[in-house]
Design brief:
With 321 residues, this protein is mostly helical. The chain has 13 helices and five strands. Helix 6 runs antiparallel to helix 7 and helix 8 runs antiparallel to helix 9. The longest helix has 30 residues. The relative contact order is 0.19. The N terminus and C terminus are likely disordered. GO terms for molecular function: enzyme inhibitor activity.
Amino acid sequence: MSIKSREIKNLGIAIDHPMQQILKLLPASGFSEQISLIDKTYKSSLLERRNQAEADKEQRKFESIDEGRSHVCVPGVWIICVSTDYKSACEASLKKSTNGNSAPKEYVRAAISALVDEVNGAFASLDDIKSDDPDVKVAVEQCREMHGYASGELNRTLGTIDDANSLSHLPAQVHELKNWLSATSAYQQTCIDGFPAGELQDKMQARLESAKRMTSNALTIVGKVSSFAPVLHGSGSRLLQEEEEENHSANGIPAWVPESERRVLESRATKEFTPNVTVAKDGTGDFKTISDALSHLPAKYDGRQAIATCKILNLSNKKKF
């Protein structure tokens, strides 16, 4: 089964932006492993080779030739969560309601929506507190009041995100968004502090812990929106074009491609490209490895056999710093 290269499905987002836009998202320290991985990862690729020896030799030089563009596949969830303090919680909440086809703005909205659910769930536990202690009763009522205030701030946050035409319009609203989220965090702490020191206060602290972490994540995300907006959105394509002009011909063919190969590829540049087989490590192609794809090519054939590959980066943070 042949799959058009532009129809290959993956769990990430095809990013047509200069690498420094991605690296801007990384904290100042602690991510050398990921930076190295991004820097060394070959781009989505078209390989036209006739034997295993040549494939092994050229595998390090994979370059995409897909409508004259090259791109790196980077998961959108990773882009949003990489700078947060609680990455696992961030990634888990976003993966529930987003996928590789989600619009960039939807990642930010998903983070706030997950926070709303977490806050509502935590404050709902107030119904389980039964006590005749007047101080506890006052604390419970104060928490309900704080819940109402927090809900109002979160609704304003969601409304602002919904009103934005795209992710690129959100940076202008960052100040208001951070104010509302900071207030939400303060309301949670006010609820906790209202209980007399002891078992009930500790329980309320534990119930709101997840909500506090997600609030922290949300503050980081909206604070970084101006950094990752150019990566997830299309506003950086001009920078990519300028960066690639030195290394690509007018048809976007890498400079390292021999002249004889270049003429063949240029003749196809304006035609619809359909590879013979596709390779994707995540199983979305015909084969998972290039070796498997090569072993299934016919021993004799006319013309060329094209193998299109897409490299999906696994950018999970494997180390704690």
